[in-house]
Amino acid sequence: MTVSRTVELDGHIIDSGMMGQCFGIVMDMNGSFEVEEFEVGRHKDATSYCRMRVSADTEGDLQSIIHELHQNGANPADPRPASAEPAPGDRVVPAGFYSTTNHPTEVFYDGQWIPVDNIEMDCAVVLEEEDGEYTARTKVLNAIREDDLVVVGEAGIRVNPPERPRDGSGPFGFMQGGVSSERPSESLIREVAEALVETKREGGNVLVVAGPALIHSGAGDALADLVREGFVDALSAGNGFATHDIERGLYGTSLGMDMETMEHPRKGHKHHIYTISEVIRAGGIQEAVDAGLIEEGVMYECIENDVNYVLAGSIRDDGPLPDTITDAVEAQNAIREQAHEADLVLMLSTLLHSVAVGNCLPSTTKTVCVDINPATVTQLLDRGSSQAIGMVTDIGTFVPTLAEKVFEVE
Amino acid sequence: MTVSRTVELDGHIIDSGMMGQCFGIVMDMNGSFEVEEFEVGRHKDATSYCRMRVSADTEGDLQSIIHELHQNGANPADPRPASAEPAPGDRVVPAGFYSTTNHPTEVFYDGQWIPVDNIEMDCAVVLEEEDGEYTARTKVLNAIREDDLVVVGEAGIRVNPPERPRDGSGPFGFMQGGVSSERPSESLIREVAEALVETKREGGNVLVVAGPALIHSGAGDALADLVREGFVDALSAGNGFATHDIERGLYGTSLGMDMETMEHPRKGHKHHIYTISEVIRAGGIQEAVDAGLIEEGVMYECIENDVNYVLAGSIRDDGPLPDTITDAVEAQNAIREQAHEADLVLMLSTLLHSVAVGNCLPSTTKTVCVDINPATVTQLLDRGSSQAIGMVTDIGTFVPTLAEKVFEVE
Amino acid sequence: MTVSRTVELDGHIIDSGMMGQCFGIVMDMNGSFEVEEFEVGRHKDATSYCRMRVSADTEGDLQSIIHELHQNGANPADPRPASAEPAPGDRVVPAGFYSTTNHPTEVFYDGQWIPVDNIEMDCAVVLEEEDGEYTARTKVLNAIREDDLVVVGEAGIRVNPPERPRDGSGPFGFMQGGVSSERPSESLIREVAEALVETKREGGNVLVVAGPALIHSGAGDALADLVREGFVDALSAGNGFATHDIERGLYGTSLGMDMETMEHPRKGHKHHIYTISEVIRAGGIQEAVDAGLIEEGVMYECIENDVNYVLAGSIRDDGPLPDTITDAVEAQNAIREQAHEADLVLMLSTLLHSVAVGNCLPSTTKTVCVDINPATVTQLLDRGSSQAIGMVTDIGTFVPTLAEKVFEVE
Amino acid sequence: MTVSRTVELDGHIIDSGMMGQCFGIVMDMNGSFEVEEFEVGRHKDATSYCRMRVSADTEGDLQSIIHELHQNGANPADPRPASAEPAPGDRVVPAGFYSTTNHPTEVFYDGQWIPVDNIEMDCAVVLEEEDGEYTARTKVLNAIREDDLVVVGEAGIRVNPPERPRDGSGPFGFMQGGVSSERPSESLIREVAEALVETKREGGNVLVVAGPALIHSGAGDALADLVREGFVDALSAGNGFATHDIERGLYGTSLGMDMETMEHPRKGHKHHIYTISEVIRAGGIQEAVDAGLIEEGVMYECIENDVNYVLAGSIRDDGPLPDTITDAVEAQNAIREQAHEADLVLMLSTLLHSVAVGNCLPSTTKTVCVDINPATVTQLLDRGSSQAIGMVTDIGTFVPTLAEKVFEVE
């Protein structure tokens, strides 16, 4: 006995690899398929359409195949309405809840296709009704409240993976995992600079995710310049980043009175603690800027230029600074807002914060990942933007070169 | 004009490298020294003694040199009493506060040498008086309360770096940063097993710090065995570790009813979320064990055998589980307690949690760091236990081999 | 003005990704295409066919696009005969020589399609005539002789990239670059063992490429077992591998007279030199085995079981052993022969030798790459077998586990 | 029964760590010691002296300890003359031959201390007599000829490990294995530039060891500048480096006629082969420069400025170029000469060639290792210069920055 179901794909399904992947999935999972209708896009602006009947030996196998096809953009030909059940409790999902991909998604409910807002991976989809109109949005597990109407099963859901840009993808490789440390850096950095300038020109939002190595390696001034000149809309970092940045302003260049009692700059960790202590005494970074304690650096420029920043706490932190959000769930929520607004994300030498941001990004956001460790870059690219650049290089030279090129291009 | 001060070293200062380091520090920092008295330990159980006059061009330079010597165990010959000042506010240290090393430390105050309790790096030392008796202990910045009596300056403080063990250091290299992936693993793992068994035989405390890769790589059963058999006193991990462990028990091997609705195990992330959801519904891990939901695995054994565990939250977490401590400061405090009680720490394939634990360890605690990434092992060993083993190997084979050898040796 | 040309694709061009790639290439290179005919394979055993007209602004652009399409299996619809020119000198190719891919290739010459023998990347194709019949084979640059008939241009050449296996690719991912250190090792190693046993059962040839870390990490005995039991047809290694293996037999376990004069096994490098010296004195490895000097180990088993071995020299070598081929070109030729005969290649903890072997492999040979360094595994997988497994793990546990499973499965 | 022997140390044995290491060795190897005489250097320019009696349970244990002490600079107090035996054959050493360290070494023979020329690790020491005068020099195994007079045993040999520089070691850390990617690059690169300029000012010899990544990453022009301006005395590289460099000159920037027939620069490997082919046709690099084929680049500047270069072959090579030394032993000999003449060695993004050069260096040569892979840097630093700098950074920015600073400093 075999069971079967019909699915459809449409759009630029050939060059985006969707159709090939779908054929491959069926075969890898020991199913079979029969193409019932196929219309090829005859030129690059024409879309293709494929309707195929997928068969498997058991209903379970078929469901597995359909699930996988679905994640890759093949949707059932006969959309039954989506099902939804109330959440059994706060932070509890009903059995069989639909878990999102990071691709644009729609739900067929109450007789129409409803787009899912704030798409992000591994979330539940919650339906909300107001004045007889339904809207849909993602919710992470801890945001679920008892009786939220949660979509279950896979019927009535349409996933739209990104398509290959028609006019070349520019520096952003389409769906490419490859990372090379041997690519000629200068020209690639220029292309990133151009993408950044163009994003801003179009009114887009640039989010910088940065780790403390950025400051250690001397790239703080260049990032501060980018913030001052308006090329950064939001900063996502941690307590260490902010402390190093402020400490560098306080102790790195001037030789004030405090330097004398602090004595020995060789093993600067004491400065680190003292910096935090002084900011705590002031009441926070804004207050420390207002009081004239902080006069330069990335955080200073964020304050002066009203750039939104999130400092997420970690169990490695000293202090922390009063601005640091120590609760992981609260911090995630703040990061989530930044991620949802971003059009271009620069992930600069931090795995932890980049993963946290990346978890909240839809597959349509452009990302640039830079780290000296190839494993970090690979891991970040694997998470799934369809338009991503990975560079294995020294952050201490990348950021100044980027800033230089941004100001040239501008 | 030159200024000078006299410092002393005693103990096994030659083979522990202290004396060589102190000579080197003076020269590297452009000072000079004059050995006023030197008594060499003529055999391996005899200690040596060195008193030397250190000179520099300026008081500032001299202070820098003395600070550095001090960190390495050279103490002023004429101990003046330590100074202390009240903290100007909650989480604020007085200017010039003394910032600790991770070596055993004493403070000369109120006419006597007081040992500093709970020694750990980058803390302040707080003096407390009760019935006219002073005690001293470390406090991290966020534990400081207004008017705490905080030691300032470096006078009256004695640091005692660990000495090379007289009878060979066994597998734990003394003060060695070197990490090799080429060492014959079998025999080294046996030595770690022997150290673990011996620690337990002597009533010591074994802390395991573990990352989710341990579960992914199939080493969960072996760790669960070690917990069940009493070789683990505490577990320090994260939300991901616990969720993967529980999920594996729930979905990995059995084929319960839920499996059917959950459909496709290929991209298990949905299981991950559902596992957390079900534990939340139960009320927590203990409750889920009591209810029979969790019947095996590392967390199960921790519950059944009353093994203390800390699950520290992170901004990468899904969920999280109710047991996860989401506040970074609370989580650090819980980790700190684990670290202070440990005699032997196994750091298994997690950089984040290992650094958090390592930050709280005195230099005298034995540590074993295992990771497939040499950079992780190097970073952990650099943090400063004097008795550490680093192994670059696959955690999925290390833990089962370790468990096997522990049960053989036992 | 636009210029255009018609190309064809046929076979399993959808699921193998060829058609998607070809569409993508045209767009990325700013060309356009018009699909003139398209027949989809309606089920998994049916092939597809696509004929499309590709256009570009200039003849140069078009050539570039056609070249790239060609490398990916799109062949001109109207095959003109291939051109060929005599090589102008020894080790000199004519301008515009055709440089091979590692995919099966045919040349249209003298009125028929001639398969190219010994396909391997970055070679010239040389046509040879005997009794009026032409044959074609690859030649590396240094094998070219004056007046060799070398194919030039891209006309009349058909490249056939491998297609996705119809019945799932087993453990060998089809065209996947991804490497994971988190995959459950045990089951994957079992699948490799099964592939190895199956290869031998079908009369195939297994080539092991091994680095010295294999011996250091204690996996020598397990590899020797595999050789003894007939699971290895050829060994490709270096002077270091063989020396470590022999040295281990000579000094590692026994305590002969030489041990006493050699004194201190702690820094064994002297053993290393002395081992080579003694094998030189004997006249070579075969002679040293005959004389009873070498009584165990991988090299011993290779001699005893007539397993072909190539020891390629390197500028890092000590000695070297008389068996080591010190000339790089000669060594490459020997490696080339091994590679051409292999059906399954295990690349074990050596980048240098694995790259050398990989350079000579057609894309149809199955490869397994194992190294503790993820960058090494990634680099090897990138070179292009269509059926490859990469594992980031400790070679010291991989080989013994593999051997165990091979003997179980057998 | 215990056996014992007396050893001496003198020089700056405390700050160089020698004395501490020697004490440690005795204890780690379960021996004991009795310091018979000790004179401490009372200030930084005064040397220390230690005579100690070392005891162990068996003669074998004692020999092991004495061997290890000896490697670290502790020499027998009662130097017996060295023994020497004729080599039993070409490339065969007598049993018990003395295997060198990379430290300056003397042999007591024929009544006097003879310095060993061309000191390098893992060699034999050969004594040669002329007019009744003995000289000593190192020979690698394959240079040994029958009847060469080879030193055996450890009597009569004095090893002198380098001492810590009295005036600070500048950027070159003394005996430090540590490598950091977080150090502020700019200032460190400046210090390297200063060391380079100073070496040339003092008439020293600068050897650059370079891998192909240097060209890929766009740093070729900067290295060519350094060669042209006389800051490089010798270049040690491989076939790939030279080919990439020449190919870049030929195809990278100009758009000559050949470009048209070569068609598509996207996958440049065909250029690579064709470049080699054209240089072969010319007869070699010198001839290709003379003929005007090569007009720029690193190799061009080497030819024009009479900079000695060695291109060592490898089994990974295409071609190779006629200048490439394909025989590993010949190539090693050429590298050995370069290494022996060098005062400062820059190892730039190549593990293979750097190890080959490093094997031939005495411990007194300054080395700078730069690679994006921390494991490469660590491995190179471990090999033992006492004055080494390791930097984990992108070679594509390091070399241009270095060149810029060299021209500034000059």
Features:
NAD (chains A, B, C, D), 410 residues, Alpha-Beta Plaits, EC 4.3.1.12 (chains A, B, C, D), nucleotide binding (chains A, B, C, D), 3 domains, conserved putative lor/sdh protein from methanococcus maripaludis s2 fold, homotetramer, alpha/beta, 14 helices
- Second-tier CATH architecture of the largest domain in chain A: 3-Layer(aba) Sandwich
> What is the level 1 CATH name of the largest domain in chain A?
Alpha Beta
What count of helical segments of chain A does DSSP give?
14
What would the principal axes of the Cα set say about the shape of chain A? globular
Function (chains A, B, C, D): Catalyzes the conversion of ornithine to proline, with the release of ammonia.
Organism (chains A, B, C, D): Haloprofundus marisrubri
Domain LOR/SDH bifunctional enzyme conserved (chains A, B, C, D): 4-103
EC number (chains A, B, C, D): 4.3.1.12
Architecture overview:
The structure is a homotetramer of 410-residue chains. The first copy, chain A, has 410 residues and is of the alpha/beta class. The first copy, chain A, folds into three domains: 1-77, 2-Layer Sandwich (Alpha-Beta Plaits); 79-163, conserved putative lor/sdh protein from methanococcus maripaludis s2 domain (conserved putative lor/sdh protein from methanococcus maripaludis s2 fold); 174-409, Rossmann fold (3-Layer(aba) Sandwich). Chain A contains 14 helices and 18 strands. Chain A has helices spanning 18-28, 59-71, 185-201, 213-216, 220-228, 239-252, 257-262, 269-282, 285-290, 298-304, 328-341, 351-359, 374-382, 395-409, and strands at 3-11, 32-39, 48-56, 75-76, 83-86, 105-109, 112-117, 124-130, 133-139, 149-152, 157-159, 173-174, 206-210, 234-238, 308-312, 344-348, 366-371, 387-392. In chain A, strands 5-10-8-9-7-6-11 form a seven-stranded mixed β-sheet, with no helix packed on it. Chain A has a seven-stranded mixed β-sheet with strand order 12-18-17-16-13-14-15, sandwiched between helices. In chain A, strand 6 and strand 7 (112-117) form a beta hairpin. In chain A, helix 3 (185-201) crosses helix 14 (395-409). Residues 253-267 of chain A have low confidence and may be disordered. Chains in contact: A-B, A-C, A-D, B-C, B-D, C-D. Chains A, B, C, D: Keywords: Lyase, NAD, Nucleotide-binding. Chains A, B, C, D: Its EC number is 4.3.1.12. Chains A, B, C, D: InterPro entries: ArgZ/ArgE-like, ArgZ/ArgE-like_C_1st, ArgZ/ArgE-like_C_2nd, LOR/SDH_bifunc_enz_cons_dom. Chains A, B, C, D: Pfam families: ArgZ-like_C_1st (PF21571), ArgZ-like_C_2nd (PF21570), Saccharop_dh_N (PF04455). Chains A, B, C, D: Residues 4-103 form the LOR/SDH bifunctional enzyme conserved domain.
